[in-house]
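Hi all, posting the design record for the shared folder.

TITLE: backbone redesign
STEP: 1 of 1
STRUCTURE INPUT:
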């Protein structure tokens, strides 16, 4: 891809103080976009934006909880105030809160829905309103998960929100295509991030045993895919979900070889 492929583009990336969102914000900035980097942790947002800017791009850090729709609207207003317009919104922020289905608490249920569904819905809405006002079209990316496509123990609420986002993208095709706005979804598989490494220190070797490509994803794998959907080459793609998981969810456990039908 052209080194300045996103020159003159303005982007918001939510939940980008570290992990996948950080790398998306970094790559967009390196390729010329001006990026508003959001995180609920204000110190992390400022540090991340400063690090990314030190590589030569334009990036500002803005704290705020995307679970509050007024704050989300404020992110769009701030991007427009700083950079004059908005072309790209990446609703990356998501709460990975897993627990046994039989024990799941109503307050946790509400929080996961508010952040994962509400945060992405209202960022998409505020961004699309701005893009409509500009008359420029635009791009929206939502962040699902393999958990929205595969049964994984203790992921029920998280999984439900992630599948919901995939349907949100499909639903929005009808209303946003006439405005020149595409909406696509990335569904990452196991990805090595500061959070996943904190929860499971040997995350990488553990997942390497079961992922067909022999390794988990790195944030760059997910960011590369996001940048493809944001590129002119993806102009005609909308309402789609792409699973980026090294083939993990494509493969089910197989029985022992003597039971496999090898009829020719
Ligand atoms: N890491 C994985 O293995 C994986 C796999 C599948 C899907 N995903 C999805 O990809 C996205 C990014 O994943 P990650 O692992 O990098 O994220 P993460 O959990 O590491 O969080 C990234 C950042 O988001 C911020 N954040 C959390 N809640 C927020 C809120 N309400 N408002 C604003 N910022 C908030 C955190 O402070 C953190 O700095 C999420 O939507 C996640 O569900 C991740």
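Okay, here is what came back for every position:
SEQUENCE:
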């Amino acid at each position: 891809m052209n080194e300045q492929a996103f020159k003159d583009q303005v982007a918001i990336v939510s939940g980008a103080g570290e992990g996948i969102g950080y790398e998306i914000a970094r790559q967009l900035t390196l390729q010329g976009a001006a990026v508003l980097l959001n995180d609920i942790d204000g110190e992390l947002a400022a540090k991340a934006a400063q690090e990314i800017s030190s590589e030569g791009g334009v990036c500002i850090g803005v704290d705020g909880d995307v679970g509050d729709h007024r704050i989300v609207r404020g992110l769009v207003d701030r991007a427009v105030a700083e950079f004059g317009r908005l072309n790209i919104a990446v609703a990356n922020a998501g709460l990975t809160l897993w627990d046994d289905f039989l024990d799941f608490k109503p307050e946790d249920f509400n929080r996961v829905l508010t952040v994962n569904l509400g945060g992405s819905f209202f960022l998409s809405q505020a961004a699309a309103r701005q893009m409509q006002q500009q008359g420029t079209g635009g791009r929206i990316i939502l962040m699902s998960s393999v958990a929205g496509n595969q049964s994984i123990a203790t992921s029920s609420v998280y999984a439900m929100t992630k599948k919901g986002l995939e349907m949100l993208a499909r639903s929005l095709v009808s209303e946003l295509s006439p405005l020149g706005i595409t909406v696509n979804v990335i569904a990452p598989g196991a990805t090595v991030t500061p959070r996943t490494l904190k929860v499971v220190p040997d995350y990488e070797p553990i997942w390497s045993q079961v992922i067909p490509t022999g390794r988990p994803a790195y944030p760059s794998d997910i960011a590369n895919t996001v940048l493809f959907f944001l590129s002119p080459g993806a102009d005609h793609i909308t309402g789609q979900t792409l699973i980026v998981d090294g083939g993990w969810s494509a493969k089910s456990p197989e029985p022992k070889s003597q039971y496999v039908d090898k009829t020719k």
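COMMENT: The domain at 10-247 is CATH 3.40.50.720 (Rossmann fold).
Let me know if anyone wants the other runs.
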